[in-house]
Amino acid sequence: AAKNSGRGTYRFYSVDLKDEETERQELLDDMREALATGGMEMHYQPVVRTKDNMVVGFEALMRWEHPERGNVSPGVFIPAAEESDLINQLGEFALRRACEDALAWPETVRIAVNVSAKQFANKGFPAIVSQVLEDTGIAPDRVELELTETVFMGDVDVTDETFRILKGLGVRLALDDFGTGYSSLSYLRSAPFDKIKVDKSFVDTCTQKNENSAKIITAIIGLSKALGMDTTVEGVEAFDQFDLVTEKGAEYIQGWIYSKARPQADILEYIANGGFKIEPSGPETYRPERR
Ligand code: C2E
Ligand code: MG
Ligand code: MG
Ligand code: MG
């Protein structure tokens, strides 16, 4: 009986695993296809200076409209790509497209691009960054690479060397999703970050009573300032959150209160129609304004 049930269990799982593996392969094939045929797009979410509501930069976020499944979240397809080499091609596409698009924006406006830890761990990564800078001619200090703490899980020598080369190229480095990983302060001591991005999860709970999130946000902003780094608070959606984080000293905010990510066409229309100022008023308001 034990043997039977064991075999039955095995069969059950093997069917499940095969489905999962097939599913994963299909997703990867579809992503490859999309990348080759223009199906992958970059959208841009503004990063806003709170004191005057000026847009100081945009974060490039990848968007994929699957022909049958509709919109697939990068929270789904990026991790899948990270399990294969495809993340390197996706990452290069994101960086190149974002830099090209940013060339049509005012020169003071920065472009932030996410870099997966797996991409970062690739020894060829700094050369790709250097090549994209050269090909596009964008000023390196307009380009900000967003890394998460998982980059420190990689080979120490490769990581150190990559940081050294990137700094030499003159790009900026931001530590994304701060507070959600190990958040070891030694990373901040040794790595040359220009900015810390406070994770959305703290913002989600910061206005709740008896929650430490507001204090943690305050502490991260203080830490960041003491180290001479900028801080962006991510994921601000509501006015009570906005009021709280600005009161705690947040100089830069990125969130739906200002705008969701928009395609380049919208950004260009916005530029053509005036300036780079947005009032905090909720997710659907960042539309190109007519003057
Ligand atoms: P992330 O880098 O931390 O990006 C911020 C995420 O928060 C984005 O989700 C953004 O749309 C979302 N967000 C911003 N403000 C708000 C808000 O007020 N409310 C809510 N609910 N969400 C907000 P998105 O675009 O779904 O991307 C998810 C993650 O996927 C990113 O997190 C990043 O880790 C990854 N990702 C996206 N594009 C790329 C890419 O081109 N390359 C790599 N390696 N990863 C990417
Ligand atoms: Mg990011
Ligand atoms: Mg983040
Ligand atoms: Mg994230």
UniProtKB/TrEMBL annotation:
It comes from the Bacteria. Residues 24-275 form the EAL domain. This is Diguanylate phosphodiesterase. It comes from Aurantiacibacter luteus. The chain holds residues 302 to 592 of 719 of the full protein.
